[in-house]
C-alpha cells in the first residue's frame, strides 16, 4: 500500500513542482542583466524564432478553457488588479486555472502523505494560499525595485531635458532601452498619452498601480510647474534629490533592522523545519498529532500561536519611512 501511495505521490509532486516553476519563472525569472540581453537580441540580425515553451502553451490552453465559462471569467477578473500591479503577463483566466491545478495537486499530495481528511484540508488551504502569497511577494518586490530605480530614471530624464528635449521626448529617450518596472510604467504612460489624456494623469495612474508616493510627488510637482511656470529642469532636479535621499534613508533603516528581521525568520521557520524533519526521520513519532483528537487540537493551537507570533514580529520589525 505504501508503494502504491508513493507511486501516485511522486507524479503529483512533480506536477506541483512544474506549476510552481512556471509561477516562479513568471514572477522572479529574469534578472536586470537578462532583460538587457533580451533587448539586445531584439536588434540582432538573423535571430531565429524561438518556439514557445511547452508550459506556456499549456498555460494558454488552460486559460482558453476557463474563458468558455462566463461565471469563471467573472471570478478570474477579481485578480486582474493584482496581476496588473505585478506585471506578470498572465491573463486572469490563466491565473485562475493555475491556482485551481495547484490546489488540486496539493490536496492530492496531502491525502497521500497524511491522513486523508486532514491531508485534504491542509493541501487545499496550502494550494489556495501559496499562489496568492507568491503574487503578493512579486508585487512588493516590483514596488521596491520601482522605488530604487526611480531616482536614476529621473536623472536620465533631467539630462535629456537640459539637452533641449521636451518632457515626453525625454521620457521616451530614457525608457527606450530599459525593461525595468520604471521603464514599463513610464512607457505605458506614454502610450496612454498618445491615445488620449494628459501625461500627468497617466503618471498618476501609474503611481496608483505601484503605490509609489514618490511618483505622486512627481506628478504634483509637474502640475504645479505647468500652472505656475518656472524651470522644469530645476523642479525635476529637486524632486530627484529628494527621492534619492529618501531611498538612502530607507536602505539605512532596513540595514539597521536586519538583525530583528533575521531573528523573526529563524523563529518562524524553526518549528516548521523541525516538524518536517521529524516527519521524514521519525514519522511514527509525529503522526499522533494528525491521528488523535488531542494531537489535532495541539496542532491547531500551535499553528494559531505561530501565526500570532509572525504577525507580532512583523509589526515590531517593520519600520515605515
TrEMBL record:
<dbReference type="InterPro" id="IPR018076">
    <property type="entry name" value="T2SS_GspF_dom"/>
</dbReference>
<feature type="transmembrane region" description="Helical">
    <location>
        <begin position="96"/>
        <end position="114"/>
    </location>
</feature>
<feature type="transmembrane region" description="Helical">
    <location>
        <begin position="120"/>
        <end position="137"/>
    </location>
</feature>
<protein>
    <submittedName>
        <fullName>Tight adherence protein B</fullName>
    </submittedName>
</protein>
<dbReference type="GO" id="GO:0005886">
    <property type="term" value="C:plasma membrane"/>
</dbReference>
<feature type="domain" description="Type II secretion system protein GspF">
    <location>
        <begin position="154"/>
        <end position="278"/>
    </location>
</feature>
<keyword id="KW-0812">Transmembrane</keyword>
<dbReference type="Pfam" id="PF00482">
    <property type="entry name" value="T2SSF"/>
</dbReference>
<keyword id="KW-1133">Transmembrane helix</keyword>
<feature type="transmembrane region" description="Helical">
    <location>
        <begin position="264"/>
        <end position="281"/>
    </location>
</feature>
<keyword id="KW-0472">Membrane</keyword>
<feature type="transmembrane region" description="Helical">
    <location>
        <begin position="293"/>
        <end position="313"/>
    </location>
</feature>
<dbReference type="InterPro" id="IPR042094">
    <property type="entry name" value="T2SS_GspF_sf"/>
</dbReference>
<feature type="transmembrane region" description="Helical">
    <location>
        <begin position="6"/>
        <end position="28"/>
    </location>
</feature>
<keyword id="KW-1003">Cell membrane</keyword>
